[in-house]
Write a structure and sequence with these properties.
By secondary structure, the chain is an alpha/beta fold. It folds into 4 domains: 93 residues, no CATH class; 194 residues, 3-Layer(aba) Sandwich (Phosphatidylinositol Transfer Protein Sec14p), CATH 3.40.525.10; 70 residues, Orthogonal Bundle (Helicase, Ruva Protein, domain 3); 168 residues, Phosphatidylinositol Transfer Protein Sec14p. The strands form 2 sheets. A 6-stranded mixed sheet has the order 5-4-3-2-1-6. Strands 11-10-9-8-7-12 form a 6-stranded mixed sheet. α7 links the parallel β2 and β3. The N terminus is likely disordered.
């Protein structure tokens, strides 16, 4: 029997044990939500649970409903769903370490009074209303993160189904909500592309299968220009749930989905709206009316707020799926040799460093490829990286407070994406000056890590690499810093292998070649093949071979402005 068959048989036995251990109560709830049993989905759900619990023991706290939403979001593909869910758990631990967002963390966004709760639609889905014209970009540092926390706070309020939560909005048998995006009075002052794409990312990657319907109303014509930018970031499933409603059909369309008694009063219904932070007031309103109805129709049973138990879940960073033709763990389905070596590599590193269990297959594969599929060399390289990261990044990240000197030089910028969807970074070497203080070289290395982490977090689905432009305009010997250059090369090759897709070196003066001759021997052959010097007269045409004009930085004749790395 082959290894794969053995694993499958073991999984099958474990699946049967899990199914046998299900309580009657949970089976009844599943049946109620499913309407009728789906044995294929049930089987795949069990396989997914085995997969995620093996890789992250904390996944045992997740109920079947949560796992099933991720499974459905990936069309019942167990591997893709498991990868998506594990990324989500990791994100939630990092972004919501306390398990919830407090109002003290989101005072700026709450003060705009832009998010409200309503009643329920005809399918029993809670109603959420957001007023787009009341959103203004937070100019303070960390503003985008505060808005993301505000979104998590709101979604947790809407989607809470904890039986012990008196403010629970989702009743038994329901997992989705209906949203109304009201753009009355929206204008360019309200434009915030980062906020809009951030909401989409949270909704699609961390709260999959939660949105049931989104009605976009009172949309002005100028909004459509922004919509064209946002639209490509919306997945196909979410697109099918969004409806633009014309003003003349507004009430009739809303009444197709919502009974008049539950329709918000501002749209001609009878239900008052309540600010998201005052959800208790809406629950009180509902309880009063439900109690009155029960007394009027006594002894008829009042419909309860039965809720399926769930625990606060843990979030995911961006899912790094692979290109078409590859499985969700990023391994080519047509390359069994690589897949086998990856399994050997994982066994090797986990036996020497148990913390390696937290590392996904995509990361290990980059180290494997960097060492030409040599498992021993890749294992040694990866273990060295693990040790370096624990020592150099004890907190797991580099804060801006640690790199103030290098950030003040304003030398690294983020652009758009090239034709392969690789994020673009531009570094101005003429703005770099050696930090003469003690620990200056280490601060520069932290800047490099800070930049690489930012770039990697911007990579879209199916992409693992970035494109860089090293601009030497104005570079002179006062900018020469051999230790910084060699440190950058070492970090890129040894700690972020297979991340660099292409490096264009532009505006290089002749005197730079003397320094280049000293740096060149330290660059491995794989990296050398990705570096291209571009002559000034061919600059724009060379860049346009890799980058569309609408994504090309405006400083090189394109249309996209550059953004400092700290403001990305």
């Amino acid at each position: 029997m082959s290894t794969q068959e053995t694993i499958y048989e073991e999984s099958k036995v474990k699946t049967e044990k899990i199914l046998e251990s299900k309580s009657q109560n949970e089976e009844e709830i599943c049946g109620q939500i499913n309407g009728k049993e789906n044995p294929v989905e049930q089987h795949k759900l069990s396989l997914m649970r085995i997969s995620v619990e093996q890789r992250d023991p904390s996944a045992k706290e997740a109920d079947d409903f949560l796992l099933r939403r991720f499974l459905r979001a990936r069309d019942l593909d167990v591997e893709k769903a498991a990868g998506m869910f594990l990324k989500y758990l990791k994100w939630r631990r990092t972004f919501v370490p306390n398990g919830f967002i407090s109002e003290a963390e989101i005072q700026y966004d709450l003060s705009h009074n832009k998010m409200f709760l309503g009643g329920f639609d005809k399918q029993g889905r809670p109603i959420n209303i957001v007023f787009g014209a009341r959103h203004f970009q937070n100019p303070k540092q960390g503003g985008p993160d505060e808005f993301k926390r505000f979104c998590v706070y709101s979604l947790d309020k809407i989607c809470s189904s904890n039986v012990s939560d008196k403010l629970s909005r989702i009743p038994a048998g329901q997992e989705q909500y209906l949203g109304i995006a009201d753009l009355q009075g929206w204008g360019y002052a309200n434009v915030d592309i980062r906020a809009y794409t951030g909401v989409l990312s949270l909704l699609q990657d961390c709260y999959p299968e939660r949105l049931g319907k989104m009605l976009i109303i009172h949309a002005p014509r100028i909004f459509m220009a922004v919509w064209k930018i946002i639209y490509p970031f919306i997945d196909e499933k979410t697109k099918t749930k969004m409806i633009f409603v014309e003003n003349r059909h507004l009430k009739s369309t809303l009444l197709e989905h919502i009974d008049e008694s539950q329709l918000p009063d501002i749209y001609g219904g009878k239900m008052p709206l309540v600010p998201i932070q005052e959800a208790w007031a809406l629950r009180l309103y509902e309880d009063i009316h439900h109690t009155a109805a029960r007394m009027a129709h006594y002894p008829a049973k009042r419909q309860g707020w039965r809720s399926i138990t769930s625990t606060y879940t843990k979030r995911r960073e961006k899912v790094k799926m692979e290109e078409s033709g590859q499985s969700s763990n990023g391994i080519s389905k047509d390359n069994p040799t690589e897949q086998h070596k990856l399994s050997l590599l994982r066994s090797f590193v986990q036996s020497r460093d148990p913390s390696s269990k937290e590392v996904d297959d995509l990361t290990l594969r980059r180290f494997l490829r960097a060492r030409d599929q040599n498992v021993d060399k890749a294992g040694a390289m990866f273990l060295k990286y693990q040790k370096w990261r624990k020592n150099f990044l004890p907190k797991g990240l580099v804060t801006e407070a640690e790199i103030q000197h290098d950030l003040s030089q304003n030398k690294i910028f983020i652009g758009g994406e090239d034709k392969k969807k690789r994020p673009i970074v531009v570094a101005y070497a003429g703005r770099h000056y050696q930090n003469t203080k003690s620990g200056g070289v280490d601060e520069f290395k932290r800047l490099v890590v800070y930049t690489l982490e930012k770039l990697c977090s911007r990579m879209p689905v199916g992409q693992e690499k970035f494109l860089a432009i090293g601009d030497l305009q104005g570079w002179g010997y006062s900018n020469s810093d051999m230790r910084a250059y060699l440190g950058s090369v070492s970090i890129l090759q040894d700690c972020y292998p297979e991340r660099l897709g292409k490096l264009f070196i532009v505006h290089a003066p002749k005197m730079f070649m003397a320094v280049w001759k000293m740096v060149y021997p330290f660059i491995d052959d794989n990296t050398k093949s990705k570096i291209e010097f571009v002559e000034k007269q061919q600059l724009k045409s060379a860049l346009l071979e890799e980058i569309d004009e609408n994504q090309l930085p405006d400083v090189y004749g394109g249309k996209l402005p550059l953004v400092p790395i700290q403001e990305a």
